[in-house]
Specification:
It is built from three helices and ten strands. The protein is α+β, with helices and mostly antiparallel strands.
Length: 196
C-alpha cells in the first residue's frame, strides 16, 4: 500500500473519529480497525473498477406497455475515483430528438454491505439515490430508487438490474415498480466496450 493511500485512510479515520473525540472518548483498537475496514476497497470495488473505460451504448425505451420502443445510441465513459472506491459514469445520447446527458456516481459501502449510487441527468433537476445488492460474483446487480415523479407528483419506485454478460458487454434493465409490486420494463441499455 502506498504512503499516499495510507495517509488518506488515516485522515479519513481521524475525521470519522471526531464525534467520539468530542465526547472525550478515545476510539478503541476495535473501533479503529472497523474504520480501517470500512475504508479499504474489497471484491465489490474490484468488480466495479472492471467497468472503467469507454462504452458504446444502445437503448430501448418503452413509453407504454406493448408500445414499440424508442431507440437511441450514444456513449458512456466510466472513470475510477479514489483508488477504486467509487466509479463515475458520464453518458451522452440523443433522447426523444433532444441532446441528453446523464451522470452516475456508484460505490459499495463496506459498513452497510450495500451497493449505493446517485443518478442525475439533463431531463430533470432531481438526484435519484439507489441502493441494492449483487449476486455472489457481482455479475447481477439489483438496485432500487424511490423518487418523486414530476408528472404525477407521487412517490414512485424504480428498479435497476445490471447484468454483466462479459467484461466487455453489460445490459442494464430499468423497471417501474407499482405499489402492488408489479414491475413494468421501461428501458433496456446495452453497453459494449469501445475498442481502441
Amino acid at each position: 500500500m502506498s504512503k499516499r493511500v495510507l495517509a488518506c485512510i488515516v485522515i479519513s479515520c481521524c475525521v470519522l473519529a471526531l464525534p467520539a473525540l468530542a465526547q472525550d472518548k478515545q476510539p478503541s483498537q476495535e473501533e479503529m480497525a472497523a474504520m480501517m475496514a470500512a475504508a479499504t476497497p474489497g471484491p465489490h470495488h474490484q468488480a466495479m473498477t472492471k467497468t472503467v473505460g469507454t462504452w458504446e451504448m444502445s437503448s430501448k425505451m418503452w413509453m407504454a406497455p406493448g408500445a414499440p420502443p424508442m431507440e437511441s445510441a450514444g456513449t458512456a465513459t466510466i472513470e475510477g475515483l479514489m483508488d477504486g472506491r467509487f466509479v463515475m459514469e458520464t453518458a451522452k445520447a440523443p433522447m426523444m430528438g433532444m441532446p441528453w446527458e446523464g451522470r452516475g456516481l456508484w460505490g459499495y459501502d463496506n459498513t452497510t454491505k450495500k451497493h449505493i449510487g446517485f443518478w442525475f441527468d439533463s431531463f430533470g433537476t432531481m438526484m435519484m439515490s439507489f441502493e441494492g445488492t449483487c449476486d455472489g460474483a457481482c455479475k447481477v446487480l439489483t438496485m432500487k430508487s424511490t423518487y418523486m415523479d414530476p408528472m404525477t407528483k407521487t412517490t414512485k419506485t424504480m428498479k435497476s438490474v445490471s447484468k454483466t454478460v462479459t467484461d466487455d458487454h453489460t445490459v442494464n434493465e430499468l423497471y417501474d415498480v407499482a405499489k402492488d409490486g408489479t414491475e413494468t420494463k421501461m428501458m433496456e441499455i446495452t453497453y459494449k466496450r469501445k475498442k481502441t
